[in-house]
Design a protein that fits this description.
The protein is an alpha+beta fold. 29% of the residues lie in helices and 25% in strands. The protein has 4 helices and 4 strands. The protein is elongated and about 60 Å long.
Length: 175
């Protein structure tokens, strides 16, 4: 074994031993990073599951294709950051409204997350049967200037009911 492989192996084993999340190839390619919930336990926070919806597999696939695009464009800012982007999407995947917040407030972290979201666009059309949705993205990171970092992007997808317009009256009441 070369020194480099040995160091990387040791680093991975040490990280797992102390509970630090590690990014695997499957995770980097957009596979779901949350273990299925055991019976009676809630799903991991931020992962979209609406309990038996026929649309859920299509929603999960949509989010799994989006997540790698976000990671590819997200430059981690220094510090302990938690940024949330809430966007309303139309059926074609166009962004109608976007709100960016962070806690604690950090303009640099907000800008980094907003840039990642912007560069991931244009978004795909929403899954068939969904006219409008609220997409909530959580950009959670911890990074220091020495190169130590961890990151996670959580996703939540909520279908928004669209009011159907009533047909116009077909006649005139003028006599």
């Amino acid at each position: 074994m070369t020194d480099r492989v040995l160091i990387l192996t040791f680093t991975f084993i040490a990280a797992v031993a102390v509970g630090i999340p590690c990014q695997t190839a499957a995770y980097a390619q957009g596979a779901s990073h949350h273990a299925p919930a055991a019976k009676g336990r809630p799903q991991a926070p931020g992962h979209a599951h609406s309990g038996g919806s026929a649309l859920q597999p299509a929603i999960d696939a949509y989010l799994n294709r989006l997540r790698p695009k976000l990671y590819a464009n997200w430059l981690l800012p220094d510090g302990n950051n938690n940024v949330e982007i809430t966007a309303t999407l139309d059926e074609k995947g166009n962004t109608e409204q976007t709100q960016v917040t962070s806690n604690p407030k950090n303009g640099t972290a907000e800008q980094a997350a907003a840039d990642a979201f912007s560069k991931a666009q244009p978004l795909e059309s929403l899954p068939s049967g969904i006219d409008k949705a609220k997409l909530v993205l959580g950009f959670i990171s911890k990074a220091d200037p020495h190169g130590d970092s961890s990151s996670n992007i959580t996703t939540r997808f909520e279908q928004v009911q669209v009011e159907k317009k009533a047909p116009a009256a077909s006649g005139s009441s003028d006599h």
